[in-house]
Amino acid sequence: MVEHGDIRVVHCGGSKINFRDPVITHDSRFLLCASGEAVKVFSTSTEECIHELRGHTGLVTGVLLRPSNHLQVYSSSLDGTLRLWDFTDGILIKVGQRFQLVAVHLPQSGDQMVEAQELSAVLSGVNPNPAAIAFGRGGEFIASVNDLQLEVYFFKKQKSYRFFLKEDNKKGGWNTFTCVACHPKDDCIATGHEDGKIRLWRNFNHKKEYTYSTLHWHHSTVSSLCFTPEGTNLLSGGVESVLVQWRYNQESERDFLPRLGGAITHITVSPDGSLFCTSHSDNKITIIQSCVKVSAVIQGLVKGDSIRTDLMMDPRSKALVLNGKPGHLQFYSLQRDKLLYNLDIVQQEYIHESGLQQFEVVKAAFDASGSWLATVEERHQKAAELELNLKLWAFDEQTQSFVLNTTISAPHDAQITAMCFCQPTDSQTTLLVSTSKDGHFKAWQLAAPAHTEDEGPSWLCDFVSAYHGLVPECCSFSADGSLLAVVFQEVVTVWSPSTWELLTTLSQPPGAVSDLCFGRLSCSKYLLGTTASNLLCWNLLTCSLEWTTSMDVRRLVADPLSENMAAFCYQSGSTDLFVFKPSEPRPLFSHKAVCSGKVTQAVFAPREEMLESCEESSQWLNRSQLYFLTHFSLITRFLLSPLKLVIDDSVAMTPFYLLLGKHRQQQQETALPQTSTSLLLLFFPFFSQLLQTPAHVLPSTSYLCSMFVQSLLISAHAEEEMESEKEEEDSEEEMESSRSKPELAAAAATESDTPALTKAQARELRRVRKLDHSWLAGLLDS
Amino acid sequence: MASFKPTKIQVYPKLGEKVTQDTLYWKNYKAPVQIKEFGAVTSIDFSPVTPHNFAVTAFTRIHIYGPFSQEPVKSFTRFKDTAYCGRFRSDGQLLVAGCEDSVVRLFDVSGKVALRLFKGHTKAVHLTDFTSDRYQILTGSDDYTCRLWDIPNATELTTYTEHTDYIRCGVTSKLNRDLFITGSYDHTVKLFDARVEKSVITMDHGQPVESVLLYPSEGLLVSAGGRHVKVWDLLKGGQPLVSLKNHHKTVTSLALSSNGQRLLSASLDRHVKVYNTTNYKVVHNFDYAASILSLGLAPDDASIVVGMTNSILSIKHRKNQEDSKEIAGQQRRRPSYRVFVKGKNYVPKQDDYLVSKPVKEHLAKYDKQLQRFNVSKALDTALGTYIRFRKPEITVAVIKELDRRGTLKNALAGRDERGLSQLLNFIIGNLVDARFTPVLVTAAEMILDIYQSVIGQSPVVDRQLLRLQDLVKREIEFQKDLLEVLGMLDTMFASSLPRKESASASAPTVDPFPTCSLNTDS
């Protein structure tokens, strides 16, 4: 990907945390979940992300605690590796290479992959959803559901039983299986169905005499089922976003926890049963105490079906703003990769029912100072007319949030296509312009109250106009607020907002203008527009076309702090980025194939402090950073869209890295004799480990110092010790694997073929780890 | 767990006037007392001394009413023809009046027979007044002259013949005994000084002047004539200050509210308008049954007296201050308030341990039902008598919410005759309300779909359905008419607007309010 030496594209966050079941550790203090190419460790009490276990190069598809050592965790990934981590310190312990065959066979889930290694002969055609497979009663059997069939395989008897259901019952429900869970103590399998029923299967080790009972509360698909560790309760969840707790054997008694958020996708219970956690379709994990009370919420970037509001920057909090959960705007901190808060725009109870038309936030706009926010929500019903609301929100300094000021119902007769605030430099009046498919554009103005008894100023329509009955597509104010450009298909009309006079019209057929941008600062005399095949630049002083280039620009973004503009062009399956000044014929920077697919959303975010970069090609990043949203479709079922960030390489350097790099350079310069190179080899793992370990778990410096000095001394005695230890450990591992569930056998197998290291390296690694353990143990004792 | 969000009740802008301090002040009058006089009431004059009796000139009589009596305290009936312009002297002892027979009569308020007769005019005298030194009388007549008379010996002092048409109104200065102002049908208002032979200032009103009024400071003069009320600055030599055109018929009478803050004008268009004298904006408006000829305002605005062409005298008395205070006092004494705030203002001490209690949120009854997805019950609750009649917007909001949830059909279905007729009644009552039409049309369609199989089984429901059909038909006709009028207005505006340079763009139409859709469904 890296074409330019100093600028590269970096994925910076916003990945899904609800992709797979999260895992709660044995002590219920941490929660682990797969998030894009990393595993995130959250604290269950503070909701903070403590570690990010990075190392996978593909999508992480499963996380599982190691049964023999509950401080370690396995993760599997689409890159074909299985990794073992120490999640308390966030250290990678082992990397296991899987067989490529397995990856091709069942690429979706970690635990499934492991099963397949063992049982590929007996279980075929399993559902790709990991919720459709469960182990029962201490690993005696495995249950798998697919479509209308439940299959139970007993490991001891090496025999499988299959049970079928009819396609639909008389009442018109659908019996398709969706998920399965097995009782930990009892011979009972719970299955969830598409019609909202839960069936409890018993006696399933007989082909004919099996029985099942039905529980019905959910009105639509049951998407997740889970038994508590003692087997006293069964938890179920679905689209309704209600967590239902059923008493085992007393099914009439139920507890409910309603309105958790989006549809429930996964339910997990901590090993001691004190915490439940539910993942939701709106990229959220809720941690619930066993008394059915929400204790914490971990919220990621919500990515709905489509981002209908563009990406925006909140001028006050410098947060990225886009529409999130239905009816909400989300404020997302790019620096901390954390959702700051959700602003409820619609203020209506969300009904969790598929196929229901809901109000959606479709447009939003901030004014230059961030004191006003305009939002448009719409609801489109099949038969009835469109419901539209334009809402104006004022920033309240006291509560530090947006407060609804004015609601305008039905501001236009048809959908609003674009909306923008005027950015006046001196005048106090704020102006909002909205364009609609009904052919009109309207200007809204903050008007003082007509009577002194009214609470405060509110927004009123100031001006309405149209142009030859054409549909306005987008609008833009010039930087000083003296000009308004409104695009009516092929024609760009320029208006004066003070007198509402049509000043001039510009057009360059063929092709409708789809994006419009005024130049800034020294380039404020230019107006840029994009058509399907061209990028156009008009000079507003001469009202003529300055230059034009033939390119398919999908998105044109202007940097608010400089005169630079970024254009994303779509060409033969990938997107190219050009950064240019309207006044200069040559682009400042170009990057071919930034990503595959189209880029439709991008935004410039101002930097907190300006950089002093002297290189010409990276100067445009001095004041602000460019963020864009990508649409990757990796698997046909998922749409993954991580955020990407373009940054300088120099910024990525951490202080530690600088320190290390300097050190290394010095050592290389001195050209040490052969012995010192071996010293380097053993020196670095320890050093890096020292740096990776969190400061609060490090022992005192004096203690470390002696160890550090010791590590520099290599004695023959120590090496012998190492050898014996290694053997011991190997045998230990074998014992572990034989004790644990079948999937660990695979893990052990993968462990044996660790990447080839030189013998000396391996020895040193081992030694350092040994040392590590010893001082950790010392710490624990103290 | 997010809490349940209650149903959003749409707030509609209040139609009609905004409530201001002025509306509260001017609405604070009792129901009017109506007294039938013998003819059109042409003049009302309040006595300057307490108890502020007022003289009402109607046909051939002048009645004097006390502040609270509905019967005349005193009547002067010795007029041979229609009397005009009965006015008190500043000490309230004497009363002067003109007459159609050109004779001016001076009465003692306590007596019955005229003390003096002033003869000299040749035509009807419409204007009479005392000068501020109390010894002279100003008269103006239809013979185009105005004269000053000496009271003690009933002789004519001066005659001014500058006006070229009937003199119908005038006023004397309260501060200077030599100054007086007359208004005439020759469109002019003239200021005379008795010390010189001629008028000092002439102001052109533009219409026949019906009434003139001096401010208490006498720096400003108000004249009414035609549809205009004009304010002149006398200290700047009669410079026009403001011209008000708020009536659509001739303005006949003017009055100042006692503190000089408000100006009242009465007109043949049956309205009395109240202006703010700082910005000359209309702040309040009174409606009367007939064209108003005369208007009087008691000191301290204690009563408004209006005389009309249908010979009705309407008196509005101000509500008593004590009455309203008493009501407010009763409300404050209500015991439940003390119970309500009990313990709320307790401030915890330093070492108190604060046990926080979750705030129980209050949900309306229909919201509680909606929370439990009891759609039919929610609609029943929202159709309760009080909500249905007093707050139909709540009922409509609940119907809208049910529609949004996709369960409106379930909620409407399964009703018996009473329930259905109640629902239909509500729909018939509110369907044509533009605020509710979009929601209720959907509901009405659903009701017709659901209950079409039972049509004909209940006479009550059938009758209501017929009413609904009739209503919709009428509404469609009405909307058609409205559209026609709109089209006519558009052509009128288009022809009257001057053509602009930027005619290439379609003429910008300023429409401050988004129009709601005009079509209704059958």
UniProtKB/TrEMBL annotation, chain A:
Where the WD repeats fall, as residue ranges, is 53-95, 215-256
Q: Where is the composition biased (Acidic residues)?
A: 720-735
Residue ranges constituting the WD repeat-containing protein 75 second beta-propeller domain according to the UniProt record: 311-631
Its subcellular locations are: Nucleus, Nucleolus
Region feature (Disordered) = 719-761
Has the keyword Endoplasmic reticulum been applied to this entry?
no
Q: Which GO terms describe its cellular component?
A: small-subunit processome
Keywords of the record, alphabetical order, are:
Nucleus, Repeat, Ribosome biogenesis, rRNA processing, Transcription, WD repeat
Q: Name one Pfam family in it.
A: Beta-prop_WDR75_1st
Establish whether keyword Transcription is in the entry. yes
Recorded superkingdom: Eukaryota
Query: Which GO-annotated molecular functions does the record name?
Result: RNA binding
> Which biological process annotations from GO are given for this protein?
positive regulation of rRNA processing; positive regulation of transcription by RNA polymerase I; rRNA processing
Record's InterPro entries?
Answer: Beta-prop_WDR75_2nd, Quinoprotein_ADH-like_sf, WD40/YVTN_repeat-like_dom_sf, WD40_repeat_CS, WD40_repeat_dom_sf, WD40_rpt, WDR75
Protein name according to UniProt:
WD repeat-containing protein 75 second beta-propeller domain-containing protein
Species classification? Eukaryota, Metazoa, Chordata, Craniata, Vertebrata
Q: Which gene encodes it?
A: WDR75
UniProtKB/TrEMBL annotation, chain B:
Does this UniProt record's set of keywords contain Metal-binding?
no
Predominant location category: nucleus
Q: Name one Pfam family in it.
A: UTP15_C
Q: SMART domains, from UniProt?
A: WD40
As for subcellular location, the record says: Nucleus, Nucleolus
Q: Where are the WD repeats?
A: 118-159, 244-285
CDD domains, alphabetically?
Answer: WD40
Q: Which residues form the U3 small nucleolar RNA-associated protein 15 C-terminal domain?
A: 345-491
The alphabetized UniProt keywords are: Nucleus, Repeat, rRNA processing, WD repeat
**Keyword Repeat listed:** yes
Entries under SUPFAM superfamilies matching the protein: WD40 repeat-like
A single Gene Ontology biological process assigned to it is:
rRNA processing
InterPro entries per UniProt: U3_snoRNA-assocProt_15_C, WD40/YVTN_repeat-like_dom_sf, WD40_repeat_CS, WD40_repeat_dom_sf, WD40_rpt
What this chain does, per the entry, is described as: Ribosome biogenesis factor. Involved in nucleolar processing of pre-18S ribosomal RNA. Required for optimal pre-ribosomal RNA transcription by RNA polymerase I. Part of the small subunit (SSU) processome, first precursor of the small eukaryotic ribosomal subunit. During the assembly of the SSU processome in the nucleolus, many ribosome biogenesis factors, an RNA chaperone and ribosomal proteins associate with the nascent pre-rRNA and work in concert to generate RNA folding, modifications, rearrangements and cleavage as well as targeted degradation of pre-ribosomal RNA by the RNA exosome.
Give the quaternary structure.
Part of the small subunit (SSU) processome, composed of more than 70 proteins and the RNA chaperone small nucleolar RNA (snoRNA) U3. May be a component of the proposed t-UTP subcomplex of the ribosomal small subunit (SSU) processome.
Protein name (Swiss-Prot/TrEMBL): U3 small nucleolar RNA-associated protein 15 homolog
Query: Gene name on record?
Result: UTP15
